[in-house]
Amino acid sequence: MGPRYCPSIEDKIIKFKTNPKxxxxxxxxxxxxxxxxxxxxxxxxxxxxxYKLLKNIKGLEGCFITKPGYSIQYDYIPSxxxxxxxxxxxxxxxxLAGQINGTxxxxxxxxxxxxxxxxxxxxVLNEKPVYFKGENSYIGVLVNDIASxxxxxxxxxxxxxxxxxxxLNYESACFRMLSISKAYMLLGKDVIHNLTxxxxxxxx
Length: 204
Fold this sequence. Notes:
The chain has three domains: 1-72, Beta Barrel (Elongation Factor Tu (Ef-tu), domain 3); 74-168, no CATH class; 170-204. The protein is built from seven helices and two strands. The longest helix is centred in the middle third of the chain and has 19 residues, at 106-124. A two-stranded antiparallel sheet has the order 1-2. 14% of the residues are buried. By secondary structure, the protein is mainly α. The radius of gyration is 22 Å and the shape is elongated.
């Protein structure tokens, strides 16, 4: 059984065996190569079967595989061993981000990187860690969930996970997080200055 969010073609065949069709998308790898990524058929089949699979897709009869598909399995740290600052409880000074924390998704990994990087630098400076709150940021929802709840499958941030989801919108993010940005110089001085002025205008 594969993960919920990135199922393999083998998993899809078992779960959706009554479906007569399956969509496949061809995505160019780069402007500098003729390689194309066949999205929708990730698999861990033997190379011979991968060729058979691809050559049975209309338009790909003459394809050549440059990078075969493969199966990925990764370990993760149980959530009981992570603090909301993303420090490993068992190894002081070790901050973790991404799939090792039991999450999946680019936004989830990037936001954890920001939290772990900020707190790692504060640790080196012998300063207190920053804890993000779930009521004013999705980052807070994420780190508090993975640090306090049992993660039984790869965790993703969805709007329903946030109690204050109506106010956690993109447009207000720069103002909601302004105090942290100021305190730890996470943005350039000019950006912080402009956001501070905008915030004052909005409040007045």
